[in-house]
Amino acid sequence: MFTLWSKNVGDPCDAAWPEDYNKDVDDPVEWCKEMLEHFNSTLRRHERPRQFVRVEIKRNNKLLRHEWHKTNLVTLIKGRDVYDTYQCERCGMTAKRFGVGAITPDSKRDWGKSCKGANR
Ligand SMILES: [Zn+2]
């Protein structure tokens, strides 16, 4: 798994956009450069040539997102708090979401951590 960041030739680097590739290649950087070269050599009239910016390699577990599913049927109300409870289907972590905010793990230690995967 890797993400290719590329941009249109002539655009500034912060105009780059990501594309995820689920490919098992030896050298993602080389693969992406060749792919862009091929793209640029086969441009259609409305297409602009693209330029390689960088590749981000995903270390599988590290960027795994929690698979949250709601565990309450009806939104819970406690005092002034209105929230839903969630549990990750993979690692079992529990979390809450207040109103329309972000899903926040119950344990502060888990804040910002990605999913560790199945805990079985
Ligand atoms: Zn998880």
Can you describe what's shown?
By secondary structure, the chain is mostly beta strands. It folds into two domains: 2-57, no CATH class; 68-109, no CATH class. Helix content is 12%, strand content 34%. The protein contains one helix and eight strands, in the order ββαββββββ. The chain has one helix at residues 28-41, and strands at residues 2-8, 17-21, 50-57, 68-70, 76-78, 81-88, 94-98, 104-105. The strands form two sheets. Strands 4, 5, 6, 7 and 8 form a five-stranded antiparallel beta sheet that branches. A three-stranded antiparallel beta sheet has the order 2-1-3, covered by helices on one side. A hairpin with a 5-residue loop joins β7 (94-98) and β8. The longest helix is centred in the N-terminal third of the chain and has 14 residues, at 28-41. The radius of gyration is 21 Å and the shape is elongated. The relative contact order is 0.16. It binds zinc ion (ZN). Zinc ion is lined by residues 66, 88, 90-91, 93, 115.
Based on the model shown, name its key terms:
120 residues, three-stranded antiparallel β-sheet, single chain, 8 strands, elongated, binds zinc ion, mainly beta
Brief rundown of the structure:
The protein is mostly beta strands.
Could you estimate the helical fraction of the residues in percent?
10-25%
Characterize the overall form. Answer: elongated
Residue ranges: pLDDT <50 for 5 or more in a row? Answer: none
Write down the overall mean pLDDT: 88
Q: Which small-molecule ligands are present, each listed once?
A: zinc ion
Q: Write the H/E string, N to C.
A: EEHEEEEEE
**In whole angstroms, how far apart are the ends?**
24 Å
The radius of gyration is 21 Å
Number of strands: 8
